[in-house]
Amino acid sequence: MHCSFLYRVRACTITCLLSTVCLYMFFKELPFTEYDPGVVITYTISGQGVTEPPYGLFVINGKTGELNITRKVDREKTPMFYLRGYALDQNGKNVEQPIDLRIKVKDINDNYPVFSEEIFTGSVEELSESGTLVMRINATDADEPNNINSKIAFKILQNQPSSFSIKKNTGEVVTAAFYLDREEQSSYTFTVEARDRDGDKTGLATTCTVKIQILDVNDNIPVLERQTYEGSVEENRANVEVMRLQVSDKDEKFSDNWLANFTIVSGNEGGYFRVETDAQTNEGVLTLVKVSVYCRVSFFFLKS
Ligand SMILES: [Ca+2]
Ligand SMILES: [Ca+2]
Ligand SMILES: [Ca+2]
Ligand SMILES: [Ca+2]
């Protein structure tokens, strides 16, 4: 393949494709008249890939100055090679000043985006406004920075229902539906794709799983099963359970939003009764604490 003389090659950047076996060099040949036609020039090189590891990567034709690369190189390992070129006469003296040769390895898109986690988990309160930030999905791409080959675009796949959206270039997941109702659906799982080349169909794509838990808000009031209750106890007895009042609350079970707080508001002036919440069942347990003759109590409960 085509290469060049090393005569007067000025420091320049040379591009080498991953699979290219020959370097393309820019050169400027000095008019031969400036040299004694009897002088035999020999070209040599030193530096990375020649006198430093990886050895044997670059070879030069001493007579013509043609510089070749002997095997594939990986830009992600070595984005640039720094060599030095010499033009010597038959006595080993420099015919001119040694020159710097910088060989830039041109990027190809040979790396998929990589997510920082396989499964991302986040949470957001129900009733959050549309556009509320839930979480951020992270992915990286080992191809050249600031190159389209490493520019990642995010997209939600299988978004059902469309309760969330993702910002294409930042990976920020935000609420899309105005009204997320934990009591209707308490968690969402969907797939996010990260595709390089800014999401172009020619790009390389990877997927991850996103799980979002909807956090409870106390948006349901407790409801007593019945309007009135009646109970009785044998006379002359104390510290006995009189009745249980079942309450229902749609908020998250066993949370403070669910647990009812009962208070006797009237009819218990004599202090005969006590009411407590059974934290396992959310029932109000009415207990007779003092011996009584006959009484009627009425009460309300208050949510905590
Ligand atoms: Ca890439
Ligand atoms: Ca690459
Ligand atoms: Ca509640
Ligand atoms: Ca709720």
From TrEMBL:
This is Desmoglein 2. Pfam families: Cadherin. Keywords: Calcium, Cell adhesion, Cell junction, Cell membrane, Glycoprotein, Membrane, Metal-binding, Repeat, Transmembrane, Transmembrane helix. The keyword Iron does not apply. Residues 41-115, 116-224, 225-290 form the Cadherin domain. It is found in: Cell junction, Desmosome; Cell membrane. One of its GO terms (cellular component) is desmosome. The gene is DSG2. The lineage of its organism: Eukaryota, Metazoa, Chordata, Craniata, Vertebrata. CDD domains: Cadherin_repeat (cd11304).
